[in-house]
Each structure stands twice: as structure tokens, then as C-alpha cells.
Design brief:
Endonuclease III, domain 1; mainly alpha; about 5% strand; DNA-binding; 3 strands; 3-stranded antiparallel β-sheet; single chain; Arc Repressor Mutant, subunit A
DNA sequence: TATGCGTGGAT
DNA sequence: TATCCAAGCAT
């Protein structure tokens, strides 16, 4: 096997030439704009995030601006991005930044990961992309690139294992600026070339040293990768219920919510779970509104 | 570790 | 049409 350092130069050169000019990259970006983008990009494609990100940054250009607004406004402005708990958590994170960090997005991983809605990936991403710090940034793109290029497998295991993290750590460039570029470059390579389906190996800068290509691109044979169901699930009902309230000016009477789903028990369960999650509040005997 | 959590485009 | 997938997090 070639030394792992052989991967760095071609990937970094490829990124320098092919990186997308996204609003949360480059000189115009702030730590806050990076943070907003990372929340929105959790399980959501870039093309759908772009317009929402612009709207949010125009309306709430700083963490304090968002923190000073109602959390319900964040949920409403989240629109149809999906997983609206992210909006609630981003608002809560903004409150924590205003109250505990002087209104400035924290720079350290340890401070970031304490914020609501910020896990290992997002903390590392903000620390790396916004502050130039040296961290292993292990998202689904990076995991897939390393699984193929180094491990010779089509897909990584369902969850991050110790060996996988150790591999990513061993590949991380020593100096912080290069490590940060390496992180975003491997993510970009996974997003644009080394995709989950139909990877474009002909355009890949490391195809000549890719273990998976060398092995003849064998099909994935690990544990079954489960795809979540949608039709008929509580998630679908929750989505319909919240959409009604989101698109209404004020509180919504229960009888309007009754119309979005015929199964009474499931509808009530979904409604109750939205209240538990804090996405809806019961404001009158039988009315519901955003928080 | 396994599960639940939205939405919509691509194949 | 049904399935897969998209920069995860919290429990």
C-alpha cells in the first residue's frame, strides 16, 4: 500500500480547482453563517439549504439577533427544510451563545459540542471551517471516501467504529490550516465525485490509488443499510400537523388539525409528541401555536 | 447501539 | 412506483 500522505496532494489540488463557491465558504462567511449552514445541512441537500440560509442570515445576521426573537419564529422560518427540531435547537444554541459566550460563536470543540443540536460532526465542522482548527471531521461524505480509497469497501459501517476514527486521525495533516482544508476537501470530493450512487471515478483525483477501484469496485456486503420508512409513520403525521400551524398566522383550533389525518389515535399521539418536543404549545383549551 | 426524527429530488 | 439518499442529533 502507498503511504497515506499520497492522498493529500491530489485531493487538495482537486479541491483548489473544483470547490463550489458556497455562501458559507470564503471571505464573506462568518462563524455564525457557518454554524447556520451546518445545522441546515444535517441530512439536507445543499440545493435546498441555499435559499433558506440566505433568508436566515439576512433576518438574523448574528446569534444574538436570533436569540432575541421567539423560537417559534425560527420554526416558522425553517419552512419545509425538514427535521424542524433543528430550528428549535439552533435557536437554543443562539441563546446559549448570547448568554454564555458574549454573543460570539465559540471557537473550541469542547465549547461547541455543549451547544444544543451540536454533536461531534457539527462541533468539529464549525471549529475547522469557521476557526481553522485541526479536527477530524467525520461526516457521511468523508466516511465514504475513506471507506473506498483506503479500506476498499463501497460503504462505511452503519456507525463510526474505533478503527475508522483512528484511520481518519492518522490521515489528518499536522498543521491546522492544511487539516481544515483537507477536511472540507474530502467532504467535497464525497459530495461531488465519490457519491453514494454512480461515483464518477473517471474524474476522481485519487482513482489511481483507490483501494476500492483496485479491487474492481466490489458491492457492499456489510450489515444491511436500513432506509427509514415514511408513508403512514408518525413523522408524516407530525409533518402535516406542524405545516398547518406554521402556515397559519395565529393559534390553530384542534378541529383544523383533525383534518390532516384520519387515524385519531395516531394523530393525537403525533400532536402530543410535538408538544413534548416544544415545537407546538397548547395556548387555549383546544388551540395550538408555535412556541 | 438502535431508533425516531422531515422533506423532496433522483433513479 | 418504490426505493434511495442528502454536511446528524438525542435518547
Amino acid at each position: 500500500m502507498r503511504g497515506v500522505s499520497d492522498l493529500h496532494s491530489p485531493v487538495l489540488a482537486w479541491y483548489d480547482e473544483h470547490a463550489r463557491a458556497l455562501p458559507w465558504r470564503g471571505n464573506g462567511a462568518t462563524a455564525w453563517s457557518v454554524m447556520v449552514s451546518e445545522f441546515m445541512l444535517q441530512q439536507t441537500p445543499v440545493v435546498r439549504v441555499l435559499p433558506m440560509h440566505a433568508q436566515w442570515l439576512e433576518r438574523w445576521p448574528t446569534p444574538t439577533a436570533l436569540a432575541d426573537d421567539d423560537s417559534g419564529e425560527a420554526v416558522r422560518a425553517w419552512g419545509r427544510l425538514g427535521y424542524p427540531r433543528r430550528a428549535l435547537r439552533l435557536h437554543a444554541a443562539a441563546v446559549a451563545i448570547r448568554d454564555q459566550h458574549g454573543g460570539q460563536v465559540p471557537e473550541s470543540y469542547d465549547d461547541l459540542v455543549e451547544l444544543p443540536g451540536v454533536g461531534d460532526y457539527t462541533a468539529a465542522a464549525i471549529a475547522s471551517f469557521a476557526h481553522g482548527r485541526r479536527h477530524v471531521v467525520l461526516d457521511t461524505n468523508v466516511r465514504r471516501v475513506l471507506a473506498r480509497a483506503v479500506s476498499g469497501e463501497e460503504f462505511p459501517p452503519p456507525s463510526v467504529r474505533k478503527a475508522e476514527r483512528e484511520l481518519a486521525t492518522s490521515l489528518l495533516p499536522e498543521d491546522a490550516p492544511t487539516a481544515a482544508t483537507w477536511a472540507v476537501a474530502t467532504m467535497e470530493l464525497g459530495a461531488l465525485v465519490c457519491t453514494a450512487t454512480n461515483p464518477d471515478c473517471d474524474r476522481c483525483p485519487i482513482t489511481d490509488r483507490c483501494a476500492w477501484v483496485a479491487a474492481g469496485r466490489p458491492a457492499y456486503d456489510g450489515p444491511a443499510r436500513k432506509v427509514q420508512s415514511w408513508a403512514g409513520t408518525d413523522r408524516q403525521v407530525r409533518g402535516r400537523l406542524l405545516a398547518v400551524v406554521r402556515e397559519s398566522a395565529g393559534a390553530v383550533p384542534r378541529r383544523r388539525l383533525d383534518q390532516v389525518w384520519t387515524d385519531d389515535a395516531q394523530r393525537e399521539r403525533a400532536l402530543a409528541s410535538l408538544v413534548v418536543d416544544g415545537l407546538l404549545v397548547r395556548v387555549e383549551p383546544d388551540h395550538f401555536a408555535l412556541p
